Structures are given as structure tokens and as C-alpha cells.
């Protein structure tokens, strides 16, 4: 456990599964109910939120460093794949999509983005589909932006360009 407590330092970008990419802004020591507790203080700029995570719980809640370049490449490659649309009820699919987004796994998030993406020539999404798509796309873009040291809109453009190119290829194959 001691090694885990030292794995993040002030200034590190980290991924907290339920909230996405944040930055360690401080290491705090607090006494709560008579017990001394070491805490990571995380700042999530997009949500304007600060979160305190006990250092000994960081691993169990799934907090991790940014993905490796290989993991990001896998996620971006996933975006190029053919969308998999299940014919189950929307409520069931929505739950599955939310679980994938909250897992913090980059490839799972990329699957949600790929499956819910709609090109301009495709039927419009429902409001809830669009909400989940935007949440997943934003989560993926924030990690990509932190890794490539660009802003989130720039990363989002890159993701949408990949999706549009893939949709054009898949639509041509389907029409043939």
C-alpha cells in the first residue's frame, strides 16, 4: 500500500473513473474521527469540482495515471471499427454505455463513442443518445488532450475526424 500512496505527485494528470481526467493539486493530511488520513486533492476543471481521495483507497476506486500511447492508439483504432448496434431496449443499452464510460477504460469509452456516433447523412439521435455520446466523447477527448498537451476542443476535432472517415468507409461498404 505504501508504494501506491506515492504513485501520484502534485501536478500529475490522473483518471478517476466516474469523473474523467483531473489533476493532483495537493497532497493533504487530515485527522478524521481520530485517524490520520493522507489525501490526494484532485481538481476537475471542466466540472469545476475538487475531490479528495484517501491515498490508500486510490487503487480500489480505480484511480490511475493517464493511459499509455499504446492504449490511446488502441482506443483510436476502436473508433475506426464498424459500429456495433445491439437491438436490445434503449434503457438496457444506456445502462451498458454508462457502465463503460464510468469504468474509466479507454477502449470501452471509445466503443461507446463509435457505437453512438451519427454522421451527417445518418438518422438523428434521440436526446438521451446524444447526451451519452457527448459524455463519452468528452471523456475520451479530455484524456487525449492531456496526453497530447492540447485543449479539449482540438482533441474532440481529432476524434470526430476519425469517426467521420470511418463512417464514410463503412457507408460505402454497406452501399456496395
UniProtKB/TrEMBL annotation:
Q: InterPro entries, per this entry?
A: CarD-like/TRCF_RID, CarD-like/TRCF_RID_sf, CarD-like_C, CarD-like_regulator, CarD_C
Give start and end of each CarD-like/TRCF RNAP-interacting domain: 7-117
- State what protein this is by name: CarD family transcriptional regulator
Q: Which PANTHER family match?
A: RNA POLYMERASE-BINDING TRANSCRIPTION FACTOR CARD, TRANSCRIPTION FACTOR YDEB-RELATED
Pfam families listed in its UniProt record:
CarD_C, CarD_TRCF_RID
Q: Which species is the source of this protein?
A: Sphingomonas vulcanisoli
